[in-house]
Amino acid sequence: MTEKNNNQEKVGVYVCHCGTNISKVVDVEEVAKWAGEQPNVEVSRDYKFMCSSLGQELIEQDIKEKGLTRIVCASCSPHMHEKTFRNACERAGLNPFLFEMTNIREHDSWITDDKHAATEKAKSLVRGSIDRVVHHEPLDEIPVEINPNTLVVGGGIAGITSALELADAGYHVYLVEREPSIGGHMAQLDKTFPTLDCSACILTPKMVDVGQHDNITLLTWSEVEKVDGYLGNFTVTVRKKARFVNEEHCTGCGICIEKCPFKEVDEVFEAGMGERKVIYRPFPQAVPKYPVIDKENCVYFKTGKCKACEKFCPTEPNSIDFEQEDEMLMLDVGNIILATGYDLFDAKKIPQYGYGKLDNVFTSLEFERMVNASGPTDGKIVLRDKESKPKSVAIVHCVGSRDENYNKYCSKVCCMYSLKFAHLVHERIPDAEIYDCYIDMRTPGKGYEEFYNRLLEEGTHFIRGKVAEITDAARIPEEEGKLIVQVEDTLIGRQRRVPVDMVILSPAMEARAGSKEVSQLFKMGCDFDGFFVERHPKLDPVATMTDGIYIAGACQGPKDVPESVVQGAAAAARVAGLISRGTVMMEPVRASIDQDACSGCKICNNMCPYNAITFHEDNEVSEVITALCQGCGTCVAACPSGVITGAHFTNEQLFSQIEGILWDVRPEKTIA
Amino acid sequence: MTNSEKPKLAMYWSASCGGCEISVLNIHEKILTVDEVFDVAFFPCIADFKVKDVEAYPDDHITVCLWNGAIRNSEGEEMAHLLRKKSQFMVAFGSCAYEGCIPALSNLTSKEATFDTVYKNNPTLDNPKGFIPTTSVQVPEGELTIPEFYNTVKSLDQVVDVDYYLPGCPPEPHQIWAVLQVIVGALLEGAPLPPKGSIVGVTNVAVCEECDLKKDEKTITRFYRPYEIVPEASVCLLEQGLMCMGPATRGGCGALCPEVGIGCRGCYGPMPGVEDQGGKMLSAIASVIGAGDETMEDDELEREIQAVVDTIADPAGTFYRFSMAHSLLQRAKVNGSNGKGEAA
Amino acid sequence: MTEQFEPVIVGFLCNWCSYRAADLAGTARIKYAPNLRSIRTMCTGRVDPQFILKALRDGADGVLVAGCHPGECHYVNGNIKATRRFVLLRKVLNQLGVEDERVQLLWASASEGIRLAEKVDEMTEALRALGPLNWEEKVLHRNNGHEAAEAIAVLEEV
């Protein structure tokens, strides 16, 4: 593009065989020979494995002996070995950013068998890199200090694990939970598969640990409103909603709850199966122990009369505070772990399953509460009338999962919890007939297949087939008063109508409603289904594309308890690693504005998702705050004056690369 | 007159409106100084010269040639070569010479389509036999020739070597004078000349810097044509949905247009380092379109954005109003399957 | 038999999704047309329309801009800004006679190697059907003096 170049640059080009991965299709000797004839190229070589120590030493030696000022390595994807070669340059005293990698493996030799085309393509890509690299500028990585405090969002089992791991390691954690108590979905469960441990018995000690830990600031009934900053230096705004209970004075005695004269259906913890008072604790073992007043339904807030809770509160001074207001807290943290959990698929979306219309169709969470000893029926399995014991129960798998109309994915945990339900019914009502309708039985886990075998022995009737309909429209006398499950039994190849007293649906785990908004709040990705996107699905499942933000548990995808625990701990380990390093180096791919040439037009100011562009009112120019910039280059492309430079992705570098990769089709002269 | 020792001045009028000639004469009493300093060697607009007079000059006889206009036909091209040969300094004077300007907008269509509009399908025409100009025609008195009309309009530097550029449609009088002063200073006092290829009489910051209208962050949900709304005084026109090329246009004019409520047209050309003024403005304008967000599905996203984009009348003609000939693509492809070059 | 026209496609692939999608296509040994010459940018939001114009001018037959799906952008919404630019550029390119098939936008996440590969195949076929763009010769007729006559000749062909 420009003739200003740089004829004095000495480029070294290294073409890798990658064993035969590249050389089998690309004529690497030919590419190397040809590269040697290109402008600015001082030396050009091909080598069996450039990433090997010997390959790297080749580069280092040439830099030292031949005075190379730029390096191009044509091998695999920069996502594989860019760092390797940058380090080699650095060892030889060359700034690592004076290196450019050409991808002739993933993007070339592996996608075609046409040797000629692959070789020509390799040349184009190499020429693009050569023309680009002469315009590279030395850059220095940017050091960033890591604030040792961490924010964990979500107090389910994943978040609890992350918080405890970090706190035990000696680092301070802010744990934010939007419900009045931590515990999450696990606190609602009765038993856990396949060991049948009492869920609350294994969870509550951990909750207590959190509540009592010196290194954990627990913020329940709180929500994150705003996130500013970047890895190492986030500032998070948290709204601590008014509890109307003074946490300093309250002893958690529960007299206020006892005396409150009004009840509401508990849609959250009891999944609509039970009631709670208007001043309430979601469950007896709640952490923290302080109750919360449900302002919307409180008679005092509605009519100005009652105040029973205040009257009976035994503390001095009184713990009830009707004047309490939401509080905004600003937290400075270095890293954030998101463990926001999941929502259950709304079974009403599948009308043919009758949930919401047919009384005795239950969801999994409703059943969990029902079967729980401290639940609304004291653990008795009964129909909606709260009295009658069912004599037959059908369990329906894959409700809203593995279904083109709702969620295509397998929700992973439903087979196992459905088996658990079958077991619990056998245990509580030994003579009940249990029909388990599944598409495929998926039991990959330690002890899981054994649990399935146990249920086979316990006498559950397994029907392989997707349930078509659940209805109360009887066709024959035996069906009268029953729920009829219409299902094709694919193993016997026959349609069946199974009359039962009770149906339990096993709905999918879904991303939280509003997960898109949450992902935007934390400036990281969320996939089509709403689950948060990990940095790499195989090798980096707890990091996100945004530095300093990690994910754990079911917010990343359907997961059972042990997997959530693993992820919670893994995320904590990643954060602990960063904290103990203290300072991390960030890529210097950042934008900057030429202050002398900026016209102050304000096109760029709202381009930046990180609010890194600030406008100086005094001299009417904009400036990029380097520490906030993440280097996307959107403002660079937007600037109508062309005065924003994106380091390592400058216009000059990219124009030159375009010219280079089009070397063979490009007209001899282009106008300036 | 041309035999004195004074530097020789020429000005030629190629494909342009002639406003540049007027602007030279519009430097007021300083025109007397020009006359004092220079001998006019060729200036068809104000004095009678013939081409053969110029042909008779020795090479480099003319000190400064102010070339006004784009290259539209063979006559322009011939004269450009002739004057280049006879001149020491060739100045691309005004936007047409610099980057094609309004004449180059016809690069959005073809020669044939242009002829069709001008000579055939036009309600004010009476041309029943459908004559169109040809370069040569036989009449009883002999052969008549006229210059060949080109398909593509070019800037001066796409035909001959250019020493300096003076953008503007037309250039502002104070700049014209400033440029002449520099050359006079160099000739009479040996002062240094700006490097060859310099764009003179401009600043290195975009028009917005000179514009006093209040600017804020921009989110535009609909664009208006100038007749559609009365802009709020003292507020950035672009923010109000009026197309203004100011952010992508080099300053130096004093932001004359936006300050009287008309969006900058872009006549001073791109900022230094920008290859394609239209492309850069397109990018900036699109960036601040207030439609589409990350929660939308692909189709909805494009549809919402398209609705706003559709309120921009003739974007190519708007973004490339002055720089078509100098743009990366330079002209439209008229034989493409959907390339009708339909400038609105 | 005449030799098949091999279009040249310049690809601007975002670092986080589509460049990785292309990596994955390679790793999975998906065979597709070797006609894409990729350039990595951090985000599709970095793709200045000038780059696309430059590629078309410098001999590319088509340009593919590929990035993360809306809502999945590594930089929150750089791809939305890219879409806005793309829609407006498409309108301008229409006026300049450049067919829609020549400049395309694709969303391909890091796991959608096959989607990227299919798009390259599909675009290669579409460009084969359209024929070479060859802006310098076929549109600008860089051949001073004779250009007008040639231009007319081209017009008559259609």
Count of DSSP strands of chain A:
34
- Tell me the name of the CATH class of chain C: Alpha Beta
Structural class of chain C: alpha/beta
Return the CATH topology of chain C. Rossmann fold
Can you give the helix content of chain A as a percent range? 25-40%
Spatial separation of the terminal alpha carbons of chain A = 7 Å
CATH superfamily of the largest domain in chain A: FAD/NAD(P)-binding domain
Strand order, biggest sheet of chain C? 2-1-3-4
Give a structural overview.
- The complex is a heterotrimer of chains A (672), B (344) and C (158).
- Chain A contains 17 helices and 34 strands.
- Chain A is an alpha/beta fold.
- Chain A has 5 domains: 131 residues, Lumazine/riboflavin synthase (Rossmann fold, 3-Layer(aba) Sandwich); 183 residues, FAD/NAD(P)-binding domain (3-Layer(bba) Sandwich), CATH 3.50.50.60; 83 residues, no CATH class; 165 residues, 3-Layer(bba) Sandwich (FAD/NAD(P)-binding domain); 56 residues, Alpha-Beta Plaits.
- A 5-stranded parallel β-sheet of chain A has the order 10-7-6-18-29, covered by helices on one side. In chain A, strands 20-27-21-22-23 form a 5-stranded parallel β-sheet.
- In chain A, strand 8 and strand 9 form a beta hairpin.
- The longest helix of chain A is centred in the C-terminal third of the chain and has 21 residues.
- Chain B is α/β, with parallel strands linked by helices and 344 residues long.
- Helix content of chain B is 30%, strand content 13%.
- Chain B has a 6-stranded parallel β-sheet, with helices on both faces. A two-stranded antiparallel ribbon of chain B has the order 4-8. Chain B has a two-stranded antiparallel ribbon with strand order 6-7.
- In chain B, strand 6 and strand 7 form a beta hairpin.
- Chain B is globular.
- Chain C has 158 residues and is α/β, with parallel strands linked by helices.
- Chain C has one domain: Rossmann fold (3-Layer(aba) Sandwich).
- Chain C has a 4-stranded parallel β-sheet with strand order 2-1-3-4, sandwiched between helices.
- Chains in contact: A-B, A-C, B-C.
- At the A-C interface, helix 4, helix 5, helix 14, helix 16 and helix 17 of A face helix 1, strand 2, helix 2 and helix 3 of C.
Summarize the structure.
With 344 residues, chain B is an alpha/beta fold.
Write the SSE topology.
The complex is a heterotrimer of chains A (672), B (344) and C (158).
Chain A: E1 11-16, H1 28-36, E2 41-47, H2 53-66, E3 70-75, H3 78-91, E4 99-103, H4 105-109, H5 115-133, E5 142-145, E6 150-153, H6 157-168, E7 173-176, E8 191-192, E9 197-198, H7 199-212, E10 216-219, E11 222-230, E12 233-240, H8 255-259, E13 263-266, E14 274-277, E15 279-280, E16 292-293, H9 299-303, H10 308-312, E17 327-333, E18 335-338, E19 342-344, E20 361-363, H11 364-371, E21 392-399, H12 414-428, E22 433-438, H13 448-458, E23 461-464, E24 467-471, E25 483-489, E26 494-500, E27 502-507, E28 509-511, H14 515-521, E29 549-551, H15 561-581, E30 583-586, E31 591-593, E32 613-616, E33 621-624, H16 634-638, E34 644-646, H17 651-661
Parallel strand pairs in A: 1-2, 1-3, 3-4, 6-7, 6-18, 7-10, 18-29, 20-27, 21-22, 21-27, 22-23
Antiparallel strand pairs in A: 5-30, 8-9, 11-12, 12-17, 13-14, 15-16, 19-28, 24-25, 25-26, 31-34, 32-33
Helix pairs in contact in A: 1-5, 2-3, 5-17, 6-7, 6-15, 11-12, 12-13
Chain B: E1 8-13, H1 19-25, H2 30-37, E2 39-42, H3 51-56, E3 62-68, E4 71-73, H4 74-86, E5 87-93, H5 95-99, H6 101-104, H7 111-120, E6 136-139, E7 142-145, E8 149-154, E9 164-166, H8 173-189, E10 198-199, H9 256-259, H10 277-287, H11 298-309, H12 315-319
Parallel strand pairs in B: 1-2, 1-3, 3-5, 5-9, 9-10
Antiparallel strand pairs in B: 4-8, 6-7
Chain C: E1 9-14, H1 18-27, E2 36-41, H2 49-57, E3 62-67, H3 78-95, E4 103-107, H4 113-130, H5 135-139, H6 147-157
Parallel strand pairs in C: 1-2, 1-3, 3-4
Helix pairs in contact in C: 1-4
